[in-house]
Amino acid sequence: MPFTPNSSWRTALSAAAAGLLITLAGCSAPDAPEPSTGAKASPAARDADVPKAPAPTRLSVPSLGIDSGLLRLGLNEDGTVEVPPAEKGMTAGWYAGGAVPGEPGAAVLIGHNDTRFGKAVFHDLHSITKGADIAVAGGGGKETHFTVTGTETVRKDEFPTDKVYGATGERVLRLITCDGEFDAAGHPVDNLIVYATLR
């Protein structure tokens, strides 16, 4: 049965996810992202930063040649979701405010497709196909495998927050990166979302 959080927790999670949109807006820009005007996180969202299972340590997508350690991502001072620093563009990150991969809920991994330093970890993510295997290793080295069920490219100002971060009793994974054309400031206008379910 799907887990249904209370409204304050859901609101806080939605606010954190909205912050992710704004922060990811500069993920391919030559400069660091501009300061965000995203909503502040409530104590409930900050409490979600404490995982109930060992944090994931490694991501592997064999069909794309992706093999990356995972940074732990939380919230910025302004309440927006962190992204990996540009100088670590070849390393993906796990948003600790979501589920631990393999546990009930939506686990979210974030990575750049390009940075000012060049090609980044999710550069080829647009080539992933339905049925592809994604493996996430935990602290003890045990791998949890997910199967890609689909992808979606969305405008950043129309990001499907509830679909990506919403409460679910299923064990699901989302990979997020920037995508699409660039705006006048040199920021990509879209996000690419990969959806996967536990095998």
TrEMBL record:
<feature type="region of interest" description="Disordered">
    <location>
        <begin position="31"/>
        <end position="61"/>
    </location>
</feature>
<dbReference type="InterPro" id="IPR042001">
    <property type="entry name" value="Sortase_F"/>
</dbReference>
<protein>
    <submittedName>
        <fullName>Peptidase C60 sortase A and B</fullName>
    </submittedName>
</protein>
<feature type="active site" description="Proton donor/acceptor">
    <location>
        <position position="112"/>
    </location>
</feature>
<keyword id="KW-0378">Hydrolase</keyword>
<feature type="active site" description="Acyl-thioester intermediate">
    <location>
        <position position="178"/>
    </location>
</feature>
<dbReference type="InterPro" id="IPR023365">
    <property type="entry name" value="Sortase_dom-sf"/>
</dbReference>
<dbReference type="GO" id="GO:0016787">
    <property type="term" value="F:hydrolase activity"/>
</dbReference>
<dbReference type="InterPro" id="IPR005754">
    <property type="entry name" value="Sortase"/>
</dbReference>
<dbReference type="Pfam" id="PF04203">
    <property type="entry name" value="Sortase"/>
</dbReference>
<keyword id="KW-0732">Signal</keyword>
<feature type="signal peptide">
    <location>
        <begin position="1"/>
        <end position="28"/>
    </location>
</feature>
